[in-house]
Amino acid sequence: MFRKFLTLIAALVLPFALFAQTDTVRLGYIVSGKVLDGMTGRPLESVHVSVPERHYATVTNADGEFSIKSDQPIIEVVFSYVGYRTLRQQSGTKKMTVRLVPESIRLDESSIITGDPYEIVRTAVNLIPDNYPDHPELLECFYRETLQKRNRYTYVSEAVSRIYKTEYNGTVYRDRAALEKSRVLLSQRSRDTLSVKMQGGPTQAITFDVVKNPEILLEQDELKLYTFEMGMPLYIGDRLQFVIHFHPSNPAETDWALYHGTMYIDRELLSFTRIEMTLDMSDVGKATRLMVVKKPLALRLTPKELSAIVTYRLQDGKSRLEYFRSTMRFNCDWKKRLIATSYTLVNELVVTDLREPAVQIPRAEMFRTNDILSEKAAEFQDPDFWKDYNIIEPTESLEHAIGRLRRGR
To answer: Fewer CB near the last or first residue (10 Å), C or N of the chain?
Structure first.
């Protein structure tokens, strides 16, 4: 049962353990740059960046910056973002500045979107076997996990991983993840010895695949617990989307916490393109039971936020997992202390390539749902550690944090 799909462990920091590494295709061609809002000039985060006719992809960081790599010269790059016009641009130089233009929607009377939003969602659920891969696939991914104590980073972990996904007319129980390269940077300050650890690492993308794991939200009995409302349509890429908001109908009547959020459903195919979810915090006890596995008895942990975004990309007639990001905010304090400490834990994964053939991950290499990345990774000093992989570029603040953690300050 995946209802406890995000879990925290409050415990003492443990030493590094091990890492796994395999060979990959050398990606010697690189294009980097920055993506801005064409109207305001502000940086755009989580823009999907890809190479046409190839499977290489990444997303922009919080500063709007990206770096994408290929085993062949990169002639064009495609940029796609919610509510903006898809841009296909010649790479020209190795450093690009890209401006995306918001997509205006003009609907005539015959195109006005109507209908029961609940029925649209239910139909989209029934069409999942048609709209998503009907055969196993092997995905190469980049995963990052960060922990902030107040406004200071105390923990950064990164991993290149592969995820084996079975067909979408099955379940997530046979899907597997494995590490290829990983590293962890931990604060050496004695007052940072209390660490919050997340179970699952890159397997979170398997659990967060809401379309394939309906127990979280899309199961028939689960849908009946929500109220659905139609929002204004918008474009993701060049495809018009139904925008459907949902919230718990009667949250007090369930024994577990439900969600508020928004679904983006392709108007033509009725496939889920993007799902945004925020855990209902009206009952802190329910939220705590969902999020926390174990903690010292003297520690009080109070959840403040649990939110997640999962996106899918249409390619070759099928929608595939593209990206997910989750954010946890919570307070921790010892019972004898008067002031609580705030923490923010963010983890994100982007699918950077599709591998052939789709070879099942051996059981001995599996990263399990109860594994903790900080206990499965070793720190590397090699400055070219990620050179052969597409990654999520670190933000300026995260780059500074990594430097401080390396110096042990």
So the answer is: N
